[in-house]
């Protein structure tokens, strides 16, 4: 039985963060789209930092490709745990949702 999502696309859309599918499943890939603060501030490159659970297990940075609507990347969902996301640009400016990060529950 899937868990109730900790967050959803509607909550983060105003910050320019969308994932597809909206409720990720362990072992699959998600598409992560970003048109938030860094994108709107003219960043030429954006990276998504991804980690799982409270300790950000399997932490990795993923370069995002510029699109007509911001930036996009594909990310593997490695664990059935909270998927945590934040963003940085090449000048080391961060968008971490005011320290709360962008977090999504992952189904098994």
What does the model show?
The chain is mainly beta and about 110 residues long. It has helices spanning about 10-15, 35-40; strands spanning about 15-20, 30-35, 45-50, 55-65, 70-75, 85-90, 95, 100-105. Strands 1, 2, 3, 4, 5, 6, 7 and 8 form an eight-stranded antiparallel sheet that branches. The longest helix is centred in the first third of the chain and has 5 residues, at about 10-15. It is globular and about 35 Å long. Residues about 1-5 have low confidence and may be disordered.
**CA(first)-CA(last) distance:** 9 Å
The overall pLDDT, averaged over residues, is 91
What percent of residues are in strands?
35-45%
What best-fitting shape do the alpha-carbon axes yield? globular
The percent of residues in helical segments reads under 10%
The count of helical stretches stands at 2
Largest sheet: 8 strands, antiparallel
Q: Structural class, from secondary structure content?
A: mainly beta
Which residues form runs of ≥5 with pLDDT under 50? 1-5
């Amino acid at each position: 039985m899937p868990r109730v999502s900790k967050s959803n696309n509607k909550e983060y859309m105003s910050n320019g963060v969308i994932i597809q599918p909206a409720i990720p499943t362990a072992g699959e890939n998600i598409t992560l789209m970003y048109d938030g603060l860094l994108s709107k501030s003219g960043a030429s490159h954006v990276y998504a930092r991804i980690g799982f659970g409270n300790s950000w297990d399997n932490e990795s940075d993923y370069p995002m490709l510029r699109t007509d609507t911001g930036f996009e990347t594909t990310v593997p969902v490695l664990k059935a745990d909270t998927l945590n996301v934040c963003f940085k640009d090449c000048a080391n400016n961060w968008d971490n949702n005011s320290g709360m990060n962008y977090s999504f529950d992952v189904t098994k």
